[in-house]
């Protein structure tokens, strides 16, 4: 790393140094001096504040050679012991909640049925109780929580944390999710107010999976196919959301020969009405196989049910046809297929159409894979969203001053 840190400030702040260490771009005093252009003494003063806050520690890895020559340097690392983060991933009929370390390790997790159709008050209050339970199980106090991240199955205005006309979340349009979830957490635990961040589930699954499994992939796409269909895009390490959170909402693209399929959004012929876990469940039910949701289809696929497998493969072909355009536009290095439907029959169907329809140039180096984090991808992404927000250089100074360092 040879580039220096530039910004609106003249000199790199304590927050900039923390960011360089956290992202692994500079992890010794010498490397920080070199990247920022700060003097040894100034780097030392700023690091001392981060040590006093408990946000930085000397690494266990031992000294490494200094880029400036001279004495070997001690490596520095983000100290994740001073706080924990809470995350929840809300699907249409079930949810997960977890407590995570600041570096993304899940310490305790709870999963169970929870229906978004019950409306925001009941759902968010229940998540508050789940948070209290996982914290107790992990042995952490409510006061240690620095923030909450929530993944929801709908388009989110991340500026306000509100969902915008969500087809799968009746009663949630424009609702103050942040305020209610912070209050629910406070009521369940007695904790003071904490920041709450909300984003779309596919975005957060993509973010979690990219960070944990493909950190060097600069153009990354994850498609979640459960009760609905959505995609998350991560470009150069950041989620790409479009101008108002609408990027990646693939489920409501009209597809050919689907004119008589009614979608939950009220339109006919949407991809989700034909190829989602919900659509496959409806076709199975019509054929006499008991299935009401994407998770029921997941169970049937896991049990090797032949009709479910055939329908999942057909759904994969429909999704693959749309993904041919996505891949041609974005030229990603990795395409992850995730969600209830993403077993081998579905992946096979996607590959059949994707490679047939996309330009060979855009798929030559493309990996089409299933999720490594599985059902925890959204939780990991929601935790990372909170940590990246709270420890962003522009927020660090204010938070250090609040700690009195
Ligand atoms: Zn639709």
Short overview:
The protein is an alpha/beta fold. Helices cover 41% and strands 20% of the residues. The relative contact order is 0.12.
From the structure above, extract its key features.
five-stranded mixed beta sheet; 14 strands; 41% helix; alpha/beta; 20% strand; 405 residues; single chain; Nucleotidyltransferase, domain 5; Arc Repressor Mutant, subunit A; globular; binds zinc ion
Account of the 3D structure:
- The protein has three domains: 14-78, Orthogonal Bundle (Arc Repressor Mutant, subunit A); 84-203 and 379-403, Nucleotidyltransferase, domain 5; 214-372, 2-Layer Sandwich (Nucleotidyltransferase, domain 5), CATH 3.30.420.40.
- The protein is built from 14 helices and 14 strands.
- It has helices at 14-22, 29-36, 40-53, 120-138, 177-189, 201-213, 271-275, 277-286, 294-302, 306-330, 344-357, 360-363, 377-390, 393-403, and strands at residues 56-64, 73-78, 84-90, 94-101, 106-113, 145-152, 156-157, 162-163, 196-200, 219-225, 229-235, 238-240, 334-338, 367-370.
- The longest helix has 25 residues, at 306-330.
- The two termini are 29 Å apart.
- This is ROK family transcriptional regulator.
């Amino acid at each position: 790393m040879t580039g220096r840190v530039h910004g609106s400030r003249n000199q790199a702040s304590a927050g900039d140094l923390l960011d360089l260490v956290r992202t692994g771009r500079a992890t010794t005093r010498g490397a920080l001096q070199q990247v920022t252009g700060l003097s040894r003494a100034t780097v030392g003063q700023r690091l001392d504040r981060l040590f006093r806050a408990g946000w930085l520690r000397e690494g266990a890895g031992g000294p490494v050679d200094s880029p400036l020559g001279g004495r070997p340097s001690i490596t520095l690392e983000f100290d994740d012991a001073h706080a924990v983060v809470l995350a929840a991933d809300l699907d249409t009929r079930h949810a997960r909640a977890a407590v995570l370390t600041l570096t993304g390790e899940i310490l305790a997790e709870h999963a169970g049925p929870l229906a978004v159709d019950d409306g925001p008050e009941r759902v968010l209050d229940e998540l508050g109780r789940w948070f209290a339970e996982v914290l107790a199980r992990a042995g952490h106090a409510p006061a240690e929580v620095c923030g909450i991240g929530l993944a929801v199955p709908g388009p989110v205005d991340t500026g306000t944390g509100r969902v915008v006309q969500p087809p799968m979340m009746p009663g949630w349009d424009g609702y103050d999710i942040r305020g209610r979830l912070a209050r629910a957490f406070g009521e369940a635990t007695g904790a003071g107010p904490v920041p709450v961040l909300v984003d779309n589930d596919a975005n957060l699954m993509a973010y979690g999976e990219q960070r944990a499994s493909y950190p060097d992939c600069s153009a990354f796409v994850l498609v979640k196919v459960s009760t609905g269909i959505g995609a998350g895009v991560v470009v150069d390490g950041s989620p790409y959301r479009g101008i108002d959170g609408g990027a990646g909402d693939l489920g409501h693209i009209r597809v050919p020969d689907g004119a008589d399929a009614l979608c939950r959004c009220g339109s006919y012929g949407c991809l989700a009405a034909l190829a989602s876990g919900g659509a496959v469940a409806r076709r199975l039910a019509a054929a006499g196989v008991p299935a009401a949701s994407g998770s029921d289809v997941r169970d049937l696929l896991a049990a090797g049910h032949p009709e479910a497998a055939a329908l999942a493969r057909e759904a994969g072909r429909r999704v693959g046809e749309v993904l041919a355009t996505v891949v041609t536009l974005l030229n990603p290095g990795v395409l992850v297929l995730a969600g209830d439907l993403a077993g081998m029959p579905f992946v096979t169907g996607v590959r059949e159409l994707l490679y047939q329809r996309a330009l060979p140039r855009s798929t030559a180096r493309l990996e089409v894979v299933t999720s490594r984090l599985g059902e925890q991808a959204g939780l990991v992404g929601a935790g990372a969203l909170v940590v990246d927000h709270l420890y962003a250089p522009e927020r660090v100074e204010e938070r250090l001053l609040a700690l009195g360092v």
